[in-house]
Design goal:
Number of strands: 4
Structural class: alpha+beta
Low-confidence stretches: none
CATH topology: Alpha-Beta Plaits
Shape: globular
CATH architecture: 2-Layer Sandwich
Radius of gyration: 13 Å
CATH class: Alpha Beta
Strand order of the largest sheet: 2-3-1-4
Number of domains: 1
Number of helices: 3
Helix content: 25-40%
Distance between the termini: 5 Å
Largest sheet: 4 strands, antiparallel
Order of helices and strands: EHEEHHE
Strand content: 25-35%
Length: 98
């Protein structure tokens, strides 16, 4: 299984409703992109303060690395990126096999 983990820092003017829309669109890719098993997400919630300005995180689970690789250029992913990316001040993504 491949975990595709990311962290977002939204532009300051982005509303909570717009943030919710981003994650709803991301979650809706499950069932539309083969091999994408789940999307989990949420706001930063730790007293450690080690988030470096990132406010939200997500984890996508893929059945195989090949499915993750096919997701990257998939038209549905590109459509969702058109919604999410303009709202981001910063993003980082990290993948690992589990």
């Amino acid at each position: 299984m491949i975990r595709h983990y990311g962290m977002f820092q939204f532009h300051p003017e982005i509303t909570p409703e717009q943030i919710d829309e981003c994650f709803a669109e991301m979650s809706a890719m499950v069932g539309k992109i083969p091999g994408l098993l789940s999307v989990e997400h949420g706001p930063y919630d730790s007293p450690e303060g080690l988030n470096d300005g990132f406010t939200h995180g997500f984890i996508m689970s893929f059945d195989t690395a090949a499915s993750r690789d096919a997701y990257l250029p998939h038209p549905e992913h590109e459509r969702v990126k058109d919604i999410v990316v303009p709202r981001l001040a910063r993003v980082t993504v990290f993948d690992f096999e589990n």
